[in-house]
Amino acid sequence: MAILPLSAHQSVAIIGAGIAGLACGQVLANSGASVTLFDKARGPGGRLSSKRRPSATLDLGAQAFSVHNAEFQRAVDTWLSIGCIASWPTATYQASPNGWQAHNDGQKRYTGAPRMSALTRHLADSLTALPQAALHTGTSITSLKRTQKGWLLVTAGGITHGPYDQVVVSAPPPQAHALLAAWDDDLATACQTRKQRACWAGWAIFDGPLPAIPGVDPDWQMARVAHPTLHIVSRNQTKPGRAAQPESLSLLAQLDWSEAHLEQPASEVARQLLAALKSLFPVSATLPDLIETGAHRWRYAQPAAACEHTYLYSGNGLALCGDNFCDGRLEDAWLSGHRLGKALIGRSV
């Protein structure tokens, strides 16, 4: 699709304040464009969100991320120097009911410090520190309207924002399709073809440490699990800045299992994830007493397949970006938004 570079001081609305939307907004605002981000959640972050409970903080989306791209590495180096991310995990395992094995693929990984959402909080704060940028959270955009002066955004409560010269949608494809279907056939078709996988994310806080496993480092941090129900176990208290909290686990379900149980109550999902966790320990082992548990459903967790595009742009002032392009990794999301921002201001990518 043709790129029509934005001129200085034009206005851009970005729907979705996850890492893709924030990365796009940063490039645009730094170029002089007026940028306003909207997110239906109480804060920025998307799937880099964290759940804060009285006794612990748990990451319910991405647990860690790696780097393959040099441009993304430069951003990561900056975040490391600021302190909003840190290296983690360093003690990982492959686990199943049949046993545990140490696992090291040689890939360095990072997590937010002191929680995963610290990264997107930093990006949002640095963006909104600019006079030409703003962020509206708790604001669900349900439709677009086109006028001679530009695009208007309409909230669920009927409030109108705008007009804007450009609208960037970084929401998952099914949600983006609802906004774009009436205005751009190509972008709407692209949304329909980007099938998404769902994932349940459980969590559990215990009043004591997990039982020991013979041959396994008692301070293990994360395990990839071969089990029909459970995919990843992440020990949040081993993450940077959280050593004072009790045993607090994120339990990410297998995608196939998640989709088969998508409409189950969260309490039942949490129960089954805990049962899967128990199966990884010796039969004689007893899990510590629960302080609390629960589960969160990510209806659009990751793309079902890779995409040939990093972003999509239409000549009528609408664009798409997000981690639904490429392979759904955090790096993919950042690159999608960053590169779209550069394309919109006419810089090479």
Determine the oligomeric state from the structure.
Answer: single chain
pLDDT under 50 segments (min length 5)?
none
Topology as H/E string?
Answer: EHEEEEHEEEEHEEEEEHHEEEEHHEEEH
Major sheet description: 7 strands, mixed
Within the largest sheet, what's the order of strands? 8-7-16-17-18-15-19
Mean pLDDT: 93
Q: Specify the overall morphology.
A: elongated
C-alpha Rg (nearest Å): 21 Å
Cα end-to-end separation: 15 Å
Strand content: 25-35%
The residue fraction in helices comes out at 25-40%
Give the helix tally: 8
Number of strand elements: 21
Structural classification: alpha+beta
Describe this entry's structure for a reader:
The protein is 25% helix and 31% strand. By secondary structure, it is an alpha+beta fold. Strand 7 (92-96) and strand 8 form a beta hairpin. Helix 1 (19-30) packs parallel to helix 8. The longest helix has 15 residues, at 330-344. The radius of gyration is 21 Å and the shape is elongated. The two termini are 15 Å apart.
